[in-house]
Amino acid sequence: MEHGFLIQILLMLVIAIVAIALLRRIGLPAILAYLLTGVVSGPSGFHWFTQQQMQSVAELGVVLLMFTLGLEFSVPRLWAMRRTVFGLGSAQVIVTTVLTMLVALACGQNWIESLVIGAAIALSSTAIVLKLLNEQGWLRRRHGELSVSVLLFQDLAVVPLLILLPLLAQNNDEPLMLAAIALALLKGILAFFLLMALGKWALPRLFDEVARSRSNELFVLSTLVVALVTGAFTQWLGLSMALGAFMAGMLLGESQYRRQLEADIRPFRDLLMGLFFISIGMMLDFALVMQFWWQILLILLAVVGGKALIIHGLLRLVGEPFRIAISTALSLAQVGEFSFVVLALAVSYGLLSNETSTMLVMVAVLSMSLAPWLVRHSVDIAKWLLGIRQSGHVDEVIPIVTDEHDLVVILGYGRVGQTIARFLKTEAVPYLVLDLDPTRVSEARRAGEPIYFGDVCKRAILKQVGIKHAKMIVITFCESRSLEEALPLCKQLAPEAKILVRTRDDSELAMLQKAGANQVIPETLEGSLMLVSQVLHQCGVPLARILKRLESERRNHYQFLHGFFSGTETDVTLESLHAVLLHRSAYAVGKQVADIDWEQLRVELRAIRRSGAEVEHPEQDWIFRAGDILLIMGKPRRLEKAEAKLLHG
Predict the structure, then answer these.
(1) Taken in order 36, 50, 356, 288, is the CA torsion positive or negative?
(2) What kind of membrane protein is this, topologically (predicted)?
């Protein structure tokens, strides 16, 4: 290898590192950094490399990307979400592709170019959207579930595109014959069944033998060989290499080696995919970008706005609320990473001109740059638009008014909410439920449950269900943002009602009680109490004594469970327990508990251990002795000051 070529590779990698670091700081995905690196090091920049030089290595990145996509592709999950995946997902892809094709045809593109453009525009970014939804804690919300369903179908739709693109290249100058499509489908089905047989019979045995060798190098090499061999097989059939890799990944995805395969192949995939996106960046002709910058901006607005309108319209058509439809539409309005794969393959097959591909790649880059902001603010934008549209009118809940004065209102109908409802029903206690999952609400209403669809964070909906008449309100969801909005509203609208709140731990206990909760039930603490009761029972402690102790802890609001010994990763803002051993010369030895100003130290004396025995909350006249171990509770800095006081005065 020439020394100059090596220096150019090193400089390209340095640019990639700097670009990733800078873009990550402002919340943009690494894909954009790779594209920027390609622009700088390609023909539009320093011209260190040509796009063709990177093509072969970059294609391996696409193969490994499709292999890992196959690993993550869960058939059971797809089947569980089949209604939204194949209903909403297919409608979105088909409608977006067809409408984009019509616009492209009207702009003078031929039908093959229009089909490629439509397919590329129809796809959204799975990696970006899932990451952002997970960061916001929205994956389990309705708009998060709808977004995931659409993304699942889009990933699945890549497979027929991989079959179709080579056919389009073979028939570029003549109408595509149905016989060619039928032959390609036959080849795809043949490849699928052959690989299915291989996956059920040969691959498990192969990886069993590899696993027994306990050689990580052999496992990695075997994974790469399987991905590339299956890709070569489908390419030999006249199909895409990426299609074979996807099938192999899908077959191995159901095996016990799935997680290990993902972990082993990820470094290679990330590196090669980085090179792939760098090669895409090299496709950008910056002179063309500057020449057509205003057309690119217009296309960007049309793509983002058009996709959002299409998705919103489809969701409203199937009965989704306005707010959820807007949130989902904004989350999926960008162009995805697989669009780059489609565009790159189209260019390599000669289906798109350099001018068209440059403009589309630039539109995709800009739309992905907007994606983080759109996803993070999708809910806020939806609420703002809903306020303008409705001006206080509510149509998200079935109109109901109740004057039942012994009513228990359950907010949230997940597993916890359903369990509470079952026990209330057996005791003939009247209750009413609000939930934001339309599927769950429909199923429960068919079963005769008094449940209604509505957002518990909206004052009008809470008033409409007659919450002011409730004697008790149970908030069963743990999403902190919704909880912060719903709890004060409930307290304001139903000041006489007892409000019970479920949380995951005791980190926000004081805040929730201050906001109006009469009782906060931390899951981790209640789980600890149940485990403790079983341990004590198995150790022979009488049941009556166990129940008495558990009831005491609940009456004292879990005070005995609030403090804990800190570890290396403990949050410094939380209170923790700290043990202080009094040596002979300690300041506190010989003094009574009352002699220490605990309020000034802002710590609590929880217990004293002496000669193996522990005394909780000792009396004020208790005299400290050398060898006593004091268990004090407070925040870390206060504990340090308290220990210094007890030992040195």
Answers:
(1) positive
(2) Multi-pass membrane protein
